[in-house]
Amino acid sequence: MKTLSCNCGFTAKGENSYQVEAAMWHHAIHDHAEMLNSMSVEMLEQWLMSKDEQLRAGA
Question: What count of other Cβ atoms lies within 10 Å of the Cβ of residue 30?
């Protein structure tokens, strides 16, 4: 099972990486919209890379 965790304590779990990443994006958009709006492209890129590392570590 794949998992991703948010700093707020939310954890997305699923059978494949796409399912887990979609659940994490859904969470981020609905619960952290202000934070996402304030992030630069570079900040989002770093966030995505850290989540990719987290997914690979849980493989």
Answer: 8
**Tokens 């859904």, residue?**
26
24-33 pLDDT, tens digit each: 999 999 999 9
Q: From CA 41, how far away is CA 38, in angstroms rounded?
A: 10
Phi-psi category of residue 46: left, alpha or beta, with phi > 0 → left and psi -120 to 50 → alpha: alpha
Question: Mean of the pLDDT values across residues 41-58?
Answer: 89
Give Cβ neighbours of residue 51 (< 8 Å, ≥ 6 apart).
Answer: 4, 21, 24
**End-to-end distance of the chain based on CA atoms, in angstroms?**
8
Q: Which helix (H) or strand (E) holds 57?
A: helix 41-57
Other Cβ atoms closer than 10 A to 24: 21
